[in-house]
Amino acid sequence: MPDLTQRLIEAMTEMPVIDAHEHLPPEAERVARDVDVFTLFGHYTHNDLISAGMTREQYDWLQDPSQDLDERWRVLEPFYARTRHTSYVRAARLAAQRFYELDIAADTYAEITERMKAANTPGIYERVLADACNIRVALTQVGRVVDDELLIAVLPLASLTANGNLGGLRANAERVGVELRGLDDCDALMEAVIAEHKRSGGVVGYKHVSTDLTTPDRATAAREFGAMLAGQEYDGRAVSDWLTHRALDLAGDAGLPVAVHCGIIWDNWNDFYDRHPRYMIPTALAHRGTRFDLYHAGIPWVREVGVMAKELPNCWLNLCWCHIISQRMSVSALDEWLDMVPLSKIIGFGGDYNKPVEKVYGHLVMAREDIAEVLAGRVERGTMRYGEALEAARMMLFDNPRELYGLEL
Prior knowledge:
- By secondary structure, the protein is an alpha/beta fold.
- It folds into two domains: 34-119; 133-404, Alpha-Beta Barrel (TIM Barrel), CATH 3.20.20.140.
- Helices cover 53% and strands 9% of the residues.
- It has 19 helices and eight strands.
- Strands 1-2-3-4-5-6-7-8 form an eight-stranded parallel β-sheet, sandwiched between helices.
């Protein structure tokens, strides 16, 4: 690794980090699990294993800790050989090396398992996130407020709209004390839920997906909503899309950003074009008072989202998940973005994991490598001073997500 890149990596390890996207549950849920080496193959590595020929049934069986460890390794081993050099698997190997002092291999998997079981105790989040990663807080998405000092919730936008589901809307209305008689009551209902979330102190934004929203007029939405309340047939999409548009505006009014899944889908056998970031262009134009955090670099449409953030003042770019999808694509995307987009609108890291918290470390190592490579290239070309590169790294890893999500750190 070039000396300048290494110097920047070393400097970044001393910088505080805001992990801008996770699915981590409360620590108590993690330590209650029975873990083993196959826990490190949870969340995302399944995608590469299945792409390499493993069946979903085999993968699910591997994740069952009640099954024989040696037999599971025999099933995994040929697929591991095919995938061990992907970015997904590299994060798992880095985690094993850092926390259990062994690389994942045929002669180490049993010992890694023993060490993982011994380490799966209260304080593991502090040891991994705070001590090893220097993460001050992680924005997590598990569908609820999380009582954990290191985790802050980003809730589904559907927590406001209930996806137009009458049962969910009535449950919200009963909880916050709003009478639901017609469409005119929905703004008051969603405002009350937002206020409830803000009072909790543990919610800093909402999560949406890039999708082709329709724009029903108010008269149509009111008619269909009334039919829903009356138990009659109704156009569910008209109701859901109307509520989504209103929720986006109300989130903006409350100063809460909306994160948006764009592009690649986490599982196999999906049409990822359904999440094309271009669907967010009319949405961002229609909701100019709402700030949108465009996730995952819109992979594979990294240039398109770069142009979107350049032209749309209410769109940010987030490299969460990206470094473990492809380090080379992440490097290329970030290098182009720095030409196009104000530096203050780029967020450098989000681990995007659930139970294998150790892999957050592996992902962050890879993120620092990618960011350092891009910044070192600019210093070497004379377009950025070394001190400016350090400032840029800190902005992407800490200052930008802190400002966007209003974090008091």
